């Protein structure tokens, strides 16, 4: 049921675990999108599925909200098979952020954000009031609420997409390459915003990306995928960088790249972080 408490800084702290139990997806004609995949996504953590195109990461993500049904195995949310849930109600209970925002072009920004709470029973006035507060939470001026998506920049549209995903106070958020279509500076800003929001709200997030730096920056745990959603390695970003499981993982995450091999250089009493080629990357506090 819709609950506006997250807007006012009082998020739910219930257990909300996602489990992929030997799931597979084979399309008509025999194309294998997902072989046999098992994973537990802990409550209130961000787990990143990292892989190239064709690795099955988006298919896995969409199994959680039944946009794709597995042909074998089960997806469980708190021990309940999602196949037993009504797909419409399930999707309304889960936040979902797409690469292009997925906003409705004929509705104002405020009405885009307020849509799901209204469907779940909130009055239009209450939903719009909380939508305005959510726009501020994701770093937007509430004044953009009266605009339409086409009047916003790409970065603004993505912020609205995040606000809309948060509007019904979901315990789970699914994020499918959400920042992939914006420039690097805006992408960094959006990542910062997500880190801040997650620190405040503690959602259970499954995040899909092919960008290694993004995965390592946002993920509490990263799952590196080969083709067919075969797990090549899973662990913290630090573990994967320090101990890549094999040559595939090492090459994919660039563990041996100059930019990943860092050293410290003392200069003028400050400790500067340098890459293997001698380029300064930052200063230790």
Task: Describe the 3D structure.
There is one protein chain. The protein has nine helices and 13 strands. The protein has helices spanning 57-64, 87-92, 109-119, 124-137, 154-166, 184-201, 212-218, 237-242, 247-253, and strands spanning 18-26, 32-41, 46-50, 72-77, 80-81, 94-97, 172-176, 204-209, 221-225, 231-235, 262-267, 270-275, 280-283. The strands form three sheets. A six-stranded mixed sheet has the order 6-7-8-3-9-10, sandwiched between helices. Strands 2-1-4-5 form a four-stranded antiparallel sheet, covered by helices on one side. A hairpin with a 5-residue loop joins β9 and β10. α3 packs across α4 (124-137) and α3 (109-119) packs parallel to α5 (154-166). The chain is globular. The chain starts with 17 loop residues before the first strand and ends with a strand. Residues 1-13 have low confidence and may be disordered.
Radius of gyration: 20 Å
Q: DSSP helix count?
A: 9
Quaternary structure of the protein:
single chain
Broad shape: globular
How far is the N terminus from the C terminus? 45 Å
Instruction: Tell me the strand order in the biggest sheet.
Output: 6-7-8-3-9-10
Percent helix among the residues? 25-40%
């Amino acid at each position: 049921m819709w609950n506006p408490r997250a807007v006012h800084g009082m998020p739910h702290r219930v257990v909300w675990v996602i489990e992929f139990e030997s799931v597979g997806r084979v399309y008509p004609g025999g194309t294998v999108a997902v072989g046999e995949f098992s994973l537990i996504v802990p409550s209130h953590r961000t787990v990143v599925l990292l892989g190239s195109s064709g690795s099955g990461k988006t298919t896995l993500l969409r199994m959680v909200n039944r946009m794709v049904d597995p042909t074998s195995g089960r997806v469980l949310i708190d021990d309940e098979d999602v196949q037993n849930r009504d797909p419409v109600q399930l999707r309304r209970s889960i936040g979902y952020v797409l690469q292009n925002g997925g906003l409705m072009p004929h509705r104002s920004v405020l009405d885009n954000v307020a849509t799901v709470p209204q469907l779940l029973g909130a009055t239009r006035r209450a939903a719009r009031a909380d939508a305005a507060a959510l726009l501020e939470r994701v770093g937007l001026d509430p004044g953009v609420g009266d605009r339409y998506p086409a009047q916003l920049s790409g970065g603004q549209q993505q912020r609205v997409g995040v606000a809309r995903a948060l509007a019904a106070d979901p315990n789970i958020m699914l994020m499918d390459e959400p920042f992939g279509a914006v420039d690097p500076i805006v992408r960094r800003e959006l990542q910062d915003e997500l880190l801040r929001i997650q620190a405040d709200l503690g959602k259970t997030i499954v995040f899909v990306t092919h960008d290694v730096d993004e995965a390592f920056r946002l993920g509490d745990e990263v799952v590196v995928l080969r083709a067919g959603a075969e797990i090549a390695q899973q662990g913290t970003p630090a573990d994967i960088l320090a101990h890549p499981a094999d040559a595939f993982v090492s090459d994919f995450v660039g563990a041996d790249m100059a930019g990943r091999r860092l050293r410290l250089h003392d200069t003028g009493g400050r400790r500067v972080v340098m890459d293997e080629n001698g380029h300064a990357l930052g200063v230790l506090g």
